[in-house]
Amino acid sequence: MRNRLKLLRVERGWTQEQLGQALGVSRQAVNALETEKHDPSLDLAYRIAVLFARPVEDIFENPHA
Amino acid sequence: MLAVGKNGTAAGKRYVIRTMGFMSGYVAINVLAIFGAFDDIGSPVAAWGLALAVSAPVVGQIWATLSFMNESDEFVRALIAKQFIIASGLAMAIASVWGFGESYAAAPHIPAWLIYPLFWACFGAVAPFIRTSR
């Protein structure tokens, strides 16, 4: 799923490891999200949205829109 | 087998420790068997006890793998589950072909416990090609 996760993470100066710790997932999971190798669950997508204080659709492109 | 858990997470470290523990037991029992420690076993009950003792670490290692999936985040869980399912299917397919080869084509007999190392060989073969959770 196309997303702006890497851009948002780099804007804050975070590493994948740091973002993973903030979200409670592994660095591999963050990398998989950024490289579109994993579509997040609704729960994880909302956790990411809360962390960056943005609506989910600002971060993840709706593939059905 | 150990490479599965080497992702730097707490769940991965637990998996490596559990797997090394179970495999140490497996190797120890088999080394004792190779050197004849169980050659004098006569009763069927004791023989089955030995079979269960050798199998127990394998069951434990399967538990360690499933626990690793349970304790990991959603991406690692999905990825390992996908690799596990495809490796299981491949191992069952190979075992079935060989089994019918024994039944109908006089293929040499292979012990059924080899399905477990076969599964991990299949896992190692397919894992590099399965890198997404989709």
Oligomer type: heterodimer
Helix content of chain A: 55-70%
Q: What is the overall pLDDT average of chain B?
A: 95
**Beta strands of chain B, count:** 0
| CATH level 3 topology of chain A | 434 Repressor (Amino-terminal Domain)
Largest interface: A-B, 14 and 14 residues
Which secondary-structure class do the elements of chain A indicate? mainly alpha
How far is the N terminus from the C terminus of chain B? 23 Å
Proportion in β-strands of chain B: under 5%
Which descriptor suits the 3D outline of chain A?
A: globular
Quantity of strands of chain A, as a count: 0
From N to C, what is the helix and strand string of chain A?
Answer: HHHHH
Q: Helix/strand-derived class of chain B?
A: mainly alpha
Number of helices of chain A: 5
Distance between the termini of chain A: 13 Å
List segments of chain A where confidence is low: pLDDT < 50 over at least 5 consecutive residues.
none
Report the average pLDDT across residues of chain A: 97
Order of helices and strands of chain B: HHHH
CATH superfamily of chain A: lambda repressor-like DNA-binding domains
Question: Could you give the topology of this structure?
Answer:
The complex is a heterodimer of chains A (65) and B (134).
Chain A: H1 5-11, H2 16-23, H3 27-34, H4 42-52, H5 56-59
Chain B: H1 10-34, H2 44-71, H3 74-105, H4 115-126
Helix pairs in contact in B: 1-2, 2-3, 3-4
